[in-house]
Amino acid sequence: MCGVFGVWAPSEEVAKLAYYGLYALQHRGQEAAGIAVSNGRQILVYKDVGLVAQVFDETALRSLGGQIAVGHCRYSTTGGSTWQNAQPTLGATLAGTVALAHNGNLVNTYQLRDWLAQRASEGADSGELARGNTTDTALITALLAGGGEHTLEATALEVLPRLRGAFSLVFMDEHTLYAARDPHGIHPLVLGRLDQGWVVASETAGLDIVGAAMVREVEPGELISIDADGVRSRRFSPATATGCIFEYVYLARPDTTIVGRAVHAARVEMGRRLAAEHPVEADLVIPVPESGTPAAVGYAQASGIPYGQGLVKNAYVGRTFIQPSQTIRQLGIRLKLNPLREVIAGKRLVVVDDSIVRGNTQRALVRMLREAGVAEVHVRISSAPVAWPCFYGIDFATRAELVASGFSVEDVRRSIGADTLGYISLDGMVAATGQPRERLCTACFTGDYPVPLSDEVAFGKQALEQPELPLTIPSG
What we know:
It contains 17 helices and 23 strands. The chain is of the alpha+beta class. The longest helix is centred in the middle third of the chain and has 15 residues, at about 265-275. It is elongated, with a radius of gyration of 23 Å.
């Protein structure tokens, strides 16, 4: 998860542009937010735990004057949810300062820490690592800061090829904005044009909100530099594109475009294919809002069953999926959704959702629908069963947490209490994206990881391949 945003615009209020960019990317991370700004002489950073609108006000944004900004909204996958781990992170170089924002997860941090220790023995600054920041982002920052007399660009071209895993980076020194994307392009990163400046963001929605025109995606294995001389591109590694398919399923905003494919259109098509693969006789198709809505529209279109709103969402409650604790997830579903009893009572419902991860949301949802007087609940999922952990930045931590990892579809159906349950096939899901399967990371569905795992991570994966599953299927 996480959202990153960068802007180079000497004639604009870059802190406010970064604020609105992060606001558009808030769905990618809700734990902390921060903005760093350079005025050409120094870099100031303002960050805190909380939502973008909670962290920043007019006074804070006015204090961040300059022509370059880097912003971040955080969802923690490495390092705890603390102020110390908020981004952007800072590092001191011989030539100035580096401020960095990162979306993704590295899988070779042990080897990188050994390399950093070697460089530290030669006098390199460990930066925020020494100040209690426990993230792989702080590690990248420390490596970039330890380039000696090299320019930041030259140091980046030395450091980036050594990083393994997922990284979409936006960073800067006092004079230049940089953007880099891992050779697999696992998470999105796009470049946009302002009238008198440039913008880099995790999603095209981040460009739209500030009025930037989409130029292109940052290519996998590419480093972009933006300064007064314009935009420069350097390749630090050959590209082997395998973008995260879960961006199409859930992570990205529906109004975002990835590799030329509108995410909303992909999700509607997933719903159509789901209806063809798992038909059922029912009276009404309803989505689990908001992430299940496009697929529910597609299901209704393909099946001929009327589409309706059966659940009302509280717009002021965040996504339950990205809350950090299991207890909050379980409480969150009742804070977040409430049934429209007069619409659904006595009806046979097709309930469309984007995924089942731990099963808590669907279990509580089915129970609520039963209490509202629904006659039948047929759950349809517009992604394949999530059965493997993600090591690239999504919170699928262990197989033991994933309800589909050790149980059959029928087991999961009984666990959540539905009358029937149907998942879209992996082939159907891939086809809906418009991308060939070899250009997509499907590791959370197949266990096929495109980036080789380090020995430490691989050992953990092996230990999880036969998890200690509960003897009984969890139920309500």
